[in-house]
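Continued from yesterday's entry.
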Amino acid sequence: MAIQIRKNQIANAQVDSSKLDLSSGTFNFASATIQVATPSADAQAANKGYVDSVAQGLDIKDSVKVATTANITLSGTQTIDGVGVIADERVLVKNQSTASENGLYLCKAGAWARTDDLATGADAAGAFVFVEQGSTQADAGFVCSSDKGAAVVGTNALAFTQFSGAGAVEAGNGLSRSGSTLSVNLDGSTLAVSGSGVKVADAGISNAQISNSAAIAVSKLASSSISLGGVSVSLGGSDNTPAFNLSDATAYPTSSLVGTITNAQLAGSISEDKLAGSISNAKLANSSVSLGGVSIALGATDATPAFDLQDATGYVTSALVGTITNAQLAGSIANAKLANSSVSLGGVSIALGATDATPAFDLADATNYPTSSLVGTITNAQLAGSIDQAKLAGSIPDSKLNDISSANKVLGSAVQLKASGSGIANDSGLKIDADGTSVQVNGSNKLEIKDSGVTAAKVNFAPSIDFFSPNGSATTFDLGATIPSGFEAMMLFRNGVALKQVASNPSGADEFALNRTGGAGGVSRVEFNGSAAPSSDDTLNAFYIA
């Protein structure tokens, strides 16, 4: 139990120095002062000078309940840093958008008031305050770090800096703080903690985490190709077959195909066993149906209600049931309803409404038609095939004959030849009258020139030679004749040395070009490079066929 000394209970001089250990200081009862030395151990008392030296530069203020972490409205009770604040509780306001509003306040039901120890007009430089509560600011100490003279409350922008307490370190992006412990915030799906380090979680990388600009190299993959229906395609590669060529995928099952194939994707014919479902009409060789003489395209509709019998000329009457009244008849009556439904002309019977397919009435059908009934003339275009001699009476006058253009119309023996010299002879037919010396008919019945059949006398061209007189500037020289087409190869000598013939643009003194018709009057011309004109000392000789 401690001994409590009350006022006036110990008289002066009742406690002497033997009762006090003042080896390092003095005590004056009259002035109630104790003088102690500067402390050197934790349990020793501190004198005023020591305390003043420690607190020098700090203007210590009474502690606040909470400190703000963001801009607030300076009125009414509210929750700050997770703590509810009521009227007359002290608050450190340090995060206002308008920094001149920062400082120490008393919470009020209405407008807040600045505290008396840091009132409007005071210099806040060095003002120091502790925070008692708060989720993030508890036990922290803050000092006004604005310069003296520029820290006038209510006038200047005030800045408060934390310099003590568990919250001296703020948790930035990706971090969280609990007391004095910092932790990395991990999502748990893409990143995780392995021992004391951070790692990428198993299966933590998805497509969303892979940048399109940073593609994964194919070499990093265990398998870098895909096989579809027997076609192997490496990643990043392509099959040259447009729209994936099914002709390549010989083993691909048709049951695995989904979607539809359009007409544009079809090429050639498809066997029936490969078809399933509907086929567009355009892909069919026959895309219409003929019923009773009525042709209807697949997918189309005949506009006649209930099938118009006037269209169905071949419909059997036995298939009709019931009776047809006059009111139900419109237009023409079907031929089958007539007692006599055909007409016979010259032995040819034609059903009413029908057509004989032979153009211009086929006389081959009219076997009993009298020739005396025929009028007009028959043209070559109306004749087909040969006419039997038995069908002809007497000779056909020349006036009735025009050029005979079709084969087998006339026998060879019936053709009259011109006099000798026509080149055609009669030998149970027509033949070429070849001389057998220069021209003959070969074993394949083809006309040909006989070996050694062409002599010099039969050739209409001869070798020629021209001599030119260069002057040192001329680069073109006209020949004396025009070289025939097909004989453009020639020889040109310069000082007895043969020059090289090129098709165009000769380069150097040893090349020339031939312009077959480029000379005066259409004769052939030899051309040299513009910088290689033959000199007046050169001799030029040209050998060619003309």
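--- second protein ---
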Amino acid sequence: MKYCAHDYQAYATDFVLSHPYCGLILDMGLGKSVITLTALWDLLLDSFDVGCVLVVAPKRVAEDTWPREIAKWEHLKGLTYSLVMGSEKERRAALSRKAMIYIINRENVSWLVEHTTWRFDALVIDELSSFFKEKKVWSVVKDELLGCYLVPYFSKLLSTRIPILYVDCFAGKGKFDDGKNGSPLVAIECLNRSLDISANGINNGMQVPEVFLRFIELHHADALKQNLPDGCKGKIEVIDGAFEDEIVGLLRNFVQRYNKRLNVFLYIDPYGIKALNMHLFHQLPEVFSSAELLINLNSFGFLREALRVRKIALRENEDELLSELDEYEPSIMQSVEDLNRIAGGDYWQEIVDKYKTNAIDISAAEKQFAEEYKMVLRKKFRYVLDMPIRLHAANKPKYRMVYATNHPDGCVLMADNISRRTEYLVIDIQQRGQLSLFPPTAENSFISPETIDNQMRTLIQRKYKSQAVSLSKLQADFFDTYGVVCSSKELSSGKKVSSLKRLEKNGEIEVERMPSERNGTPTRFWSEQKDQKVTIKGK
């Protein structure tokens, strides 16, 4: 492919050539790889200032992106490379091959320094930020989404007297290198807070059920054990192994022990897409008293593998863009069957076919895949929500947090959670404190109160014109139908103007409240609690 450099790309290449030490800080998809390779070609084959280059990159980027970029551009003809990856024998063989550029994954850099002779004239570090293992912005939002949900989740289920099993399926070390808590410690803190609430009288007189916390971790189980705090009130076990190898046996043991009478929550934050198994997810609601999922869905990672397996090429610049969207090193899928297992069907093939014919771009393909994925989950879960996580407002989602439950209260709680986290992400990170007229939705769009009213009106007329529905179920149906376009307070609140309040005022709905009056005065509340209920029916 012929390379026609944009002005900024030509400037960046010249900058590299004129500075012995420099960094390229460009947004995703702007061509950092080809800029760097263009400069290296000049240094290696024109000025001869450099004779041997080492490129250090994340594993997938090293074995896929860099070789592909070298082969892709006509002006890079003449560059030779060797992939220093695999077993030690394979790495040494790669180093012994004559090449201009040696490409190594970051995990093998220590070995390279300690066990070989340094002979490189230039060093390129791709995705330098990934070398610093601080907790990233998107991980903060992800764990906040989890933590803000778990406290009321544990508190509510403690009152059922049914045992609770919480499983962090890819637990990690428990702490990041910068000292910030990871998901296991977040869950422990939430459980301790919930149990303290129960002990303070909210569940006074009730027997507290057993709570089991299971942390599955393949690579860092020992570090996780060391990072676990003292004084956890749940029954904790760290399982040293792979999620796909351990989860079935773990769940089967609890089924045998409790005869399906168990509340189960799975937090699934995998290192790629390979471990996702829709068949397993579908079984959970059939087996346990309640089952909920919170899944980190790397939708772009899935599409990249789908295109590769189907031998469909990514369009110019989209390959680099997708390489930069991954938080973790993605899985390499082997077959259509593997992808069907993850997706829960073959619907994804039609999506990639549309991409192949240029009917849609990669962004539209990702959104279609996410919607279809949620539809498959809905075969067994009544409510399914998702939150796309972006680095900046204009960016494509880095991944989606997908939540599935059969309980309306859980759906509403998570929707409010997503709404708050979206506001934090967009305002504090993306817009740097600049507020807009209407808060953005999870999909980065703006929804007016009039639009919310129309959506609520349509939902009630379609489903609840002749039958009454509880307030919580109506709210959950709204979020499941339209996504998290607002908070539950914007749907129903007695303290501010809200959608249902406006519809009631206009005489478009019938609202029944129990109790209907207090001290001889008609009640007007818009909340459901232990001693008050609200039902709605369309006119």
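Residues 408-430 form the longest helix (23 residues). Residues 426-438 have pLDDT under 50 and may be disordered. Will compare against the first tomorrow.
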